[in-house]
Amino acid sequence: MRTARARHYLMCRPTHFDVVYSINPWMDPTKPVDTPLAIAQWERLREVYLNLGHTVDTIDPVPGLPDMVFAANGATVIAGRALVARFRDAERRAEGPAYHDWLRDNGFPELRTAAFTNEGEGDYLPVGDWLLAGTGFRSDPRSHDEAQEFFGRPVIGLQLVDPDYYHLDTALTALDENTVAYHPGAFSPGSRAVLERLFPDAVRASAADAAAFGLNATSDGHNVVLPQNATGLADQLRDRGFNPIGVDLSELLKAGGSVKCCTLELRRAH
Q: 238: how many CB neighbours lie within 10 A of its CB?
């Protein structure tokens, strides 16, 4: 039996969403973007969370920051402590202070901005007592030591090697305290060996489901919200006792983001 646990999420409405620059392989500024459709898809995701019993706070979108909808990149929050992102790309750097100020004003006094490039929960995913940490395209490997010192939990560094999966949360998702799903092809041989050692019973996603951004998902321990086109992954999750819930975030995928990218988990101190 899988047990759901209510979560506390932070999201940012894609009021200013657009693709006007390219900082990952999914972004093509020549392709038109339907911002009202992006907003409608985002509202549906928020509704799914509320219907599951989760708490959803929102941060005000800032004009000129079209990627601010991807709240997961804003920080990593564990046990009430928040390590705020330091973005690699100039186009996104102003998002860090916006998330810093929201966290400061909403009950997270133990926070600081990362000294090294660190793109929040895009590259940092708590699983049990570990903090899985991605590098290779965005977050600086030196940020792994910084996160370990700040959170006081062991950090497991994982090397990403496929530019289509430029953040850890595009290639791996935490399903519960002991279980992950991941796409082996996104990782270096050594990192694949680490994942096999730590999670021998992991769900391994196919290339097709990974390309549908199926691993950019959220889980409450039972319900897994994921892109609706990742049908093979949904079947695997169902076989493992999870309840997959497919959503359509196709408009946001034009910027290389989906369910998890839109969702920052606010883990309070226990």
A: 12
